[in-house]
Amino acid sequence: MKCSSPEALLPFPVLIGDIGGTNARFAVLTDPKAEPRHVHTVKTADFASIDEAIEAAIIGQDAPKPRSAVLALAGPVEGDEVPLTNCHWVVRPRQMIAALGLEDVILLNDFEAQALAVTALAPEHLEKIGGAEPEEGASRVVLGPGTGLGVAGLVHARGIWIPVPGEGGHVDIGPRSARDFQVFPFIERIDGRISAEQILCGRGLVNLYRAVATAEGRTSSINDPAYVTGAALAGEDPIAEEALSIFVTCLGRLAGDHALVFKGKGGVFLTGGIAQKIVPALKNGQFRAAFEDKAPHSAMLLQMPVYVITHPLAALVGLAAYAGSPERYGVEKHGRHWRKS
Prior knowledge:
Blueprint: E1 14-19, E2 23-29, E3 37-43, H1 50-59, E4 68-73, E5 82-83, E6 90-91, H2 93-100, E7 104-109, H3 110-117, E8 126-128, E9 140-145, E10 149-157, E11 160-165, H4 178-183, H5 202-215, H6 225-234, H7 238-262, E12 268-270, H8 273-277, H9 279-282, H10 286-292, H11 298-303, E13 306-309, H12 314-324, E14 337-339
Helix pairs in contact: 3-12, 5-6, 5-7, 6-7, 7-10
Subcellular location: Cytoplasm
Keywords: ATP-binding, Cytoplasm, Glycolysis, Kinase, Nucleotide-binding, Transferase
EC number: 2.7.1.2
């Protein structure tokens, strides 16, 4: 039977997991104040199901047997069967409880976990990209270009932090500069439109590289995002440099848009492996220029700080913070909390 009582505390040990399109990261919390232990990362493509991955990564290892689980998934959580957006797994909490011997399962959106993390990360895990100091208690925004493009908000109200999940990575994005109008016609569309995720993720870097090459009258067989970022940062490929430049500018525009939506005076946080790898490009001025170019509110954006989250397991930090102190957070559990009958 489903349980949605916000007062219900999870029994420890708690399995926490960050399930993305490419990688799944798991860990175990032995008590509310413990750090995540027995951290294990697997490739989603290597397992037929999440249950098999958990068996291999945690249950079959020398780790405490979890009694409950809090899992962050890359996709909207709706119903008793939750397919992941960029992965073949379908998460079935009732089946998971029976197969893995769990008492409770809570499913969150992956960027809810990232939003929760910004309340718990230490300063040494944040690389600042301009702006003034954050306002205490003000709203925050998290964006993460990775396998896809995740977006979430974080609002402080009634003494608690409330994560706001969504699918903001799928908003429309379009050309603005003269060069954009030359390149954008060659960006792959889905059902006739270009969403932000078509540009601002791993495959988006490849899409941009190919679009720039086509605009220059050249063909390209590049299909590795790491090549684009590496060659661009090393100054080895002019097409890669321009592709990364457009990527950074569009990320700045989108981050500024969401900062306006949430009035993110508490900070805008960029997370994920791509952001961590391209910090030099994010610091060269293009990102901030695009982020702040939001007349008539440019002065407000000028003050908003932007940070790159450098912690490699930020989502697990967020899940651990929630599992250990659920009273600090307004996480909606209705329809997302399953309990053993």
